[in-house]
Write a structure and sequence with these properties.
This protein is mainly alpha-helical. The chain has one domain: Orthogonal Bundle (Cytochrome p450), CATH 1.10.630.10. The chain is about 55% helix and about 10% strand. It has 23 helices and 10 strands. The strands form 4 sheets. It has a 3-stranded mixed sheet with strand order 1-2-8. A 3-stranded antiparallel sheet has the order 4-10-9. It is globular. The structure holds protoporphyrin IX containing FE and 2-acetamido-2-deoxy-beta-D-glucopyranose (2 copies). The site of one 2-acetamido-2-deoxy-beta-D-glucopyranose has 2 residues, from loops. Belongs to the cytochrome P450 family. InterPro entries: Cyt_P450 (IPR001128), Cyt_P450_CS (IPR017972), Cyt_P450_E_grp-I (IPR002401), Cyt_P450_sf (IPR036396).
């Protein structure tokens, strides 16, 4: 009896303390939200404050935005409507979902600014803070001009045969044992292709030894992203990190040193051989046209941050084709007889539409990178002051039933046959909007289409039963949702 009493009493005590802690936390979060709302008034013409979730300790909605983007995009729109506010740390971000608001916001896109370190804090800044995608003004122009010539439409078309050869070799060596049928986690099967193809566009051909070195450094960079940036908290402050997590800071330094040495080595070994982009870039860095961090962070952006983006997109493309035998067959028919190099440049092929449909259904991020206009804007009826971060809910735009129809969540590439390109402008999030559109869009598109062309020539694709049952399962270690599904590759008899 006594024991039971003690057990009950202590249970009650623990329960009460727990409740108290929780309610104080919720209470504190509410108070902080009230303060933040007062500090950053965003109201409509009736003086109604913009809705949105409460600030949450310690990172606001910063991490959910990436790690749980898909669920949150739907939940928030459901709870708060088409225009609402979230918190990145304590920085407000206005989320827009309506095409007309996207148009209004981007009407002065030339003068837009990206938020410092994307409002993601210190650790992120150490990896990517000075990269092309996140800096502004004259520094951005200089950096964009530095890399742009490599990735223009015409430059990519001149390089098609190089990309094509890499795609063919990659597909031919997909299975070192050359089995007639095998299954692989799609992401593992494809990821090295866009990675080395992109790296080659910067460094020229890489030896096996150089490839292994680069891959190893990429793993260091991805690990820091996964372990520290995506846990937020103390890693958003440099002082706190140095004090509380010296091991993380050491890991960061190891990566930074390795990355600089690798690029210096690339420059040294290539400078005699003429013009590969790394040589020019390094020279311009030494002349002071771009800073060392700008150069190294942009290389990180293009090669490492994009590894997740490209792996995600290419994996989903392969998975959707594996899922839909009919479309797969039709794409193969489209390919028969034509040259891969010609087919990959057509914007009106079924293959091109499969690529767009993949970007539509699986944008690499549920919310775009925060950006601000230097002018006041009225978005969704709310007066958004100049210089406030705005993000586009990519998922809501791409799944919008009003534009895309009732089957907006299904893979149906043929839908693009009846959409006018002009209408796509603010109804599809693919490579971003306005001036800060993706630098690598032509390159990325050609690279992925060529890969699929060779893949479909050689293999029938299907999904394992487990993959079919849980198609949307994604890993949580990356900032981009990478699918877990396994694809079965079966050699075609031709
Ligand atoms: C299918 C693959 C790809 C997709 C879906 C994609 C998507 C995007 C998007 C949406 C943005 C704009 C982000 C924003 O709002 O700030 C962007 C920017 C950027 N992308 Fe890509 N990208 C892809 C491949 C690549 C490749 C292969 C490269 C390598 C050259 C690349 C380099 C960049 C750079 C440097 C920026 C920053 C541009 C700037 O701010 O001036 N991307 N990308
Ligand atoms: C909204 O608030 C401002 C200042 O607080 C006031 O001048 C204005 O009349 C109010 N408008 C409405 C519609 O209540
Ligand atoms: C917005 O930011 C720009 C550049 O940082 C600055 O020049 C301008 O004064 C700011 N505008 C307002 C209204 O704060």
């Amino acid at each position: 009896m006594g024991k039971l009493f003690i057990a009950l009493a202590s249970g009650l005590l623990v329960g009460t303390v727990w409740l108290l802690v929780c309610s104080t936390r919720v209470c504190i979060e509410k108070i902080i939200t009230k303060l933040l709302v007062l500090l950053h008034p965003v109201k409509d013409s009736q003086n109604v404050s913009i809705p949105g979730p409460n600030w949450k300790s310690y990172d606001g909605q910063l991490l959910e935005k990436f790690l749980d983007g898909k669920a949150r995009a739907q939940e928030w729109q459901h709870c708060y409507g088409p225009t609402y506010r979230i918190w990145s740390g304590t920085t407000p971000e206005i989320v827009i979902t309506k095409p007309e608001d996207i148009r209004t916001f981007h009407s002065d896109s030339v003068s837009h600014n990206k938020a410092r370190s994307s409002n993601a804090g210190w650790m992120f800044h150490q990896l990517l803070g000075e990269c092309m995608g996140l800096i502004n003004g004259a520094r951005w122009t200089a950096l964009r001009n530095e890399f742009a010539p490599t990735y223009t439409h015409s430059a990519v078309h001149e390089k098609i045969s190089i990309i094509s050869n890499q795609a063919r070799d990659y597909v031919n060596n997909l299975d070192p044992q050359q089995r007639p049928s095998f299954s692989l986690r799609t992401a593992d099967a494809v990821s090295r292709f866009p990675f080395f193809c992109t790296a080659t566009s910067i460094y020229g051909p890489l030896s096996d030894h150089e490839k292994e070195a680069l891959w190893a450094i990429a793993q260091q960079s991805l690990a820091i992203m996964g372990k520290y940036v995506l846990s937020g908290g103390i890693y958003r402050s440099g002082r706190l990190s140095r004090w509380v997590a010296p091991a993380a800071v050491r890991e960061l330094n190891t990566f930074q040193t390795a990355w600089e040495e690798f690029n210096l080595e690339m420059y040294r070994t290539r400078r005699e051989k003429g013009t590969v982009p790394i040589v020019e870039l390094w020279r311009h860095m030494e002349e002071g046209l771009v800073t060392k961090d700008e150069a190294l962070h942009t290389l990180s952006e293009i090669i490492f941050a994009n590894l997740d983006v490209a792996t995600g997109t290419l994996s989903w493309l392969v998975i959707f084709l594996a899922l839909d035998e009919n479309v797969q067959k039709q794409v193969r028919e489209e390919l028969s007889g034509g040259r891969a190099e010609d087919l990959c440049t057509s914007k009106n092929s079924l293959l091109a539409h499969c690529f767009l449909e993949t970007l539509r259904l699986r944008p690499f991020t549920a919310f775009s990178i925060p950006e601000s206009s230097p002018s006041n804007k009225v978005l969704g009826g709310f007066h958004v002051p100049a210089n406030t971060s705005v993000v586009v809910s990519a998922l809501c735009v791409n799944y919008n039933k009003e534009f895309w129809g009732k089957d907006s969540e299904e893979f149906r590439p043929s839908r693009f046959q009846s959409v006018k390109p002009l209408d796509l402008r603010y109804n599809l999030f693919s490579f971003g909007f306005g001036t800060r559109k993706c630098l690598g869009q032509h390159f990325g598109e050609v690279m992925m289409k060529l890969f699929v062309i060779y893949l479909l020539e050689r293999y029938e694709l299907s999904l394992t039963p487990a993959a079919r049952a849980d198609l949307n399962k994604v890993g949580r270690d990356n900032w981009v949702p990478i699918p877990e599904a396994e694809v079965v590759f079966t050699e075609r008899k031709v």
